[in-house]
Amino acid sequence: MRNPQMSQMSADKGVRDETTHAIIGAAMAVHSELGQGFLEAVYQEALEYEFRARGIPFRREFELPIQYRGATLNCSYRADFLCFDEIIVELKALQRLSGNEEAQVINYLKASGLHKALLLNFGTARLEFKRLVLNLRESASSADKPE
């Protein structure tokens, strides 16, 4: 079942997002050099190296605090990267992505208030990537407020 608040950005729409394109290009370079079979931590370190070499601004292990009814909870998420101060980048090294990984990234977007994310999987013969965009409607932003 698809989440109506999420959409995948499509390359066939003729609109090229330069920032996500740059991140995917860096990931493809890493995958081309290392191939599949390494642990996620190896790809994360190599991608950090590639981001630096390409001048892609990033923060690694970016903490995403969780809000509940106006309070910040003690627990938080940690995204692999935040690039260009607006794109969450989550890495995986799995034989196959399931809906769980996409749900994880959706939760990262909700927690951060950001709208764009990339899910990159290095565990397959070819790099897999999903571009995700969170489309929250203003009227649906809080279910606990009376209308």
Task: Give the arrangement of secondary structure elements.
Layout: E1 6-8, H1 18-34, H2 40-54, E2 58-68, E3 71-83, E4 87-92, H3 99-112, E5 116-121, E6 128-134
Parallel strand pairs: 4-5
Antiparallel strand pairs: 1-6, 2-3, 3-4, 5-6
Helix pairs in contact: 1-2
Features:
Lambda Exonuclease, Chain A, 147 residues, alpha+beta, six-stranded mixed sheet, disordered C terminus, single chain, 3 helices, disordered N terminus
Helical run tally: 3
State the total count of DSSP E strands: 6
Query: What topology, given as strand order, has the largest sheet?
Result: 1-6-5-4-3-2
How would a textbook summarize the main sheet? 6 strands, mixed
Helix content estimate: 25-40%
CATH fold annotation: Lambda Exonuclease, Chain A
Task: Give the overall pLDDT as a whole number.
Answer: 86
